[in-house]
Design goal:
Blueprint lengths: L20 H8 L1 H19 L6 H21 L11 H25 L3 E5 L4 H35 L1 H14 L9 H22 L2 H18 L12 E5 L3 H4 L9 H20 L12
Antiparallel strand pairs: 1-2
Helix pairs in contact: 1-2, 2-3, 2-5, 3-5, 4-8, 4-10, 5-6, 5-8, 6-7, 7-8, 7-10
């Protein structure tokens, strides 16, 4: 994907094009537009994430609109990361990586005796349709918040690497509320999700790419009936865990297993290399906004 990285380092909006005064200057600062965007997108997500039918998808569309408004009016920058041209292609690329990542993890754990899988006997279309709707909403809104707003806001101040580290910590901590959550599960998610998705974004500079990866990751687990960050879904299959929680993830689910953590490292390394070659990693001295 051809991506313009200079958009984040454009000049400040001209006087009169945005809010004025002390409050206006704060809103146009990285802290201001990040906080405003997080509140806006977070509010949309809280109202639509568990809604019936297509409500989560409609919520994702509304969240994209809120994100675009904040970025254009407050941050004073374009939004090439949510551009519609190429969006489907980027989402499918990310989805392919997410699908391969989770399926490989699942198969390896099963081969090592950690999982036994059986058909649950639930309606295929009802379960799959619900999973797709919910996970589209979750993937898009979470990526807008963590990779779109928080990561980019931090990046403007402290550069790409520190931004990834900080957002990874926040992303891991955000998943401490599930059953079986622990410091290890938070660290595991910080590594396999926070760091991997951070470098995935730096590589492609596309919300659709990381949202596609995130969507495939969550949807496969939900359909397989594996606990997702401690929340057991009504999937198409039933999974029983056997043996060490370090292998299976226990009641928290696959994300607390060592298997996806190690696989995520193998995936993250080439993403880091590709992001650096593409000029997608910015040092602190270049982070102005």
């Amino acid at each position: 994907m051809s991506t313009t990285f200079t958009a984040r380092h454009e000049a400040e909006p001209a006087p009169g094009t945005g809010p004025v005064g002390r409050g206006g200057r704060f809103l146009r600062s990285p802290l201001g537009w990040t906080a405003t965007g997080l509140v806006g997108v977070g509010l949309v997500a809280s109202l639509t994430a568990t809604g019936p039918g297509p409500v989560p998808v409609l919520g994702a569309a509304a969240a994209v609109a809120v994100y675009a408004l904040v970025m254009r009016r407050l941050a004073g920058r374009d939004t090439s990361e949510i551009a519609r041209p190429g969006a489907v292609r980027e989402a499918l690329r990310g989805g392919a990586i997410g699908l391969g990542f989770i399926l490989t993890s699942l198969v390896l754990i099963a081969l090592l005796g950690g999982y036994s899988i059986s058909w649950a006997g639930r309606g295929l279309f009802a379960v799959a349709g619900s999973a797709v709707m919910v996970q589209i909403g979750t993937a898009v809104t979470e990526e807008l918040m963590f990779r779109g707003l928080l990561l980019q806001g931090l990046e403007q101040r402290w550069g790409s690497r520190i931004a990834i580290a900080v957002t990874a910590v926040f992303f891991g901590a955000a998943h401490l509320g599930g059953a079986g959550a622990s410091l290890w599960s938070a660290l595991a998610i910080a590594l396999q999700a926070g760091v991997m998705l951070g470098f995935a974004y730096m590589w492609r500079r596309s919300i659709w790419f990381v949202a596609g990866l995130h969507f495939a990751w969550n949807t496969v687990q939900q359909l397989a009936g594996i606990p997702l960050s401690g929340h057991t879904p009504d999937g198409l299959f039933t999974v029983e865990a056997h043996g060490s929680t370090l292998l299976t993830g226990g009641i928290f689910g696959l994300e607390a297993s060592m298997v996806p953590v190690l696989l995520s490292v193998l995936i993250t390394i080439p993403m880091f290399v590709l992001a650096r070659r593409a000029g997608g990693l910015f040092p602190r001295r270049r982070a102005r906004r």
